[in-house]
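User: quick one - fold this with 5-hydroxymethyl-3,4-dihydroxypiperidine bound?
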Amino acid sequence: MHNAVRFPDSFLWGAATSAYQIEGSPLADGAGPSIWQRFTHSPGLTANGETGDTACDHYRRWESDIAVMRELGLNAYRFSISWSRVLPNGTGTVNERGLDFYRRLVDGLLAVGIAPNVTLYHWDLPAALDDRGGWLNRDIADWFADYARVMFRALGDRVPMWATLNEPWVVTDGGYLHGVLAPGHRNLYEAPIATHNLMRAHGTAVQVYRAEAKRAIGLVVNLEPKYAASQRDEDVVATRLADAYMNRQYLDAACLGSYPDEMREIFGDAWPEWPAADMAVIKQPLDFIGVNYYTRDFVRNSGYTLAGLVGDAEAERDHRQQRGKLNDLGWEVYPEGLAQFLREYSRYKIPILITENGIPTQRDDDRWVFLFMHLWQVARAIADGVDCVGYLHWSLIDNFEWADGYKARFGLIEVDFETQERRIRPSAWRYAEIIRRNEL
Ligand code: IFM
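Assistant: Sure. Structure tokens for the protein plus 5-hydroxymethyl-3,4-dihydroxypiperidine:
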């Protein structure tokens, strides 16, 4: 028996998804293709050649999916907008039928008391914009701002919380440096440019938000504590670099207006001097920081030298020294890291929303233990004074895990991808009970 721990009354309890991972029907009703449509339809790039063509068929089953959220008592739901459903060419004419899908979804959520939490960019860039250079083209900050304006005007009065980007680190590292995610580039010189344009797009969209709508907007990052694999000097240095590269690169830029000094150490000549005017655009007041937390990492020198950065991602992962229980994707389960990071990242003095936290596993008991242990860490951090405003589990539903396809089961809701039948997992019922009581 433990003493019950209560969460703040206004605490957001929910779950998260993203458009390409669950919607299916990627080209329906006038939508344009995204880079993920192209990536998954290029041979050999995803597990078993799997695609998001059907995914969870949420585009057609959204009403029953909301009904399940209601049954579980969620009071918040994080999802993303597919940019190319709304603007098939990325810019220009709005596709009202695509936008209508999100209008219906938002209204449906509000009707049952679930607060929509909308992410504008969760990796599915319109292919038409990739043809114009994608995140490597400076103009993308304006393209993104125009798209954001369309969304704020359509839904700004009804959506209380927005995020600009999901995990810009993954967009750059997976998409432009290691080539394992769309658009599949492997280029040391492109990575800093993609990073910087992502951050310019973020800052520009926040400026638009302040002009168009007045609730809350933030940035979602994935954080992973980095520990030295040994006390050898080179491992300690590599750990500092790894931390700067993954954890501080984006938040320092957004919150402090500067990238960590380590970026030049990591990228050398490939890291340009950025104009001060750009940094001023990137640094905008934020209403919350969204933190996605899954695991920790042990760093050896070879993993974060330049060679390691441009090397094969799998090989890099082999350098990691995992010490605890591993999930189905081989990531260590390390709940303590969540409280540690919540405390550390309070230094920006911005409220934190846990926008993702979850476990890919076929064993639902493991999911329950994972969920409980991480919530325990959230409660500890709140007791220590961290302003953590909510917890959104990844994921609401089993879905398309990018290059890993459908084998990773992250869902509170199980999906039979043959029949599209849904089943609420026991861990989800236990989560529902925590939500109902607002305590652990
Ligand atoms: O599925 C992803 C999600 O799209 C972004 N954050 C991590 C999740 C699990 O890998």
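One thing worth noting: The chain has a mean pLDDT of 94.
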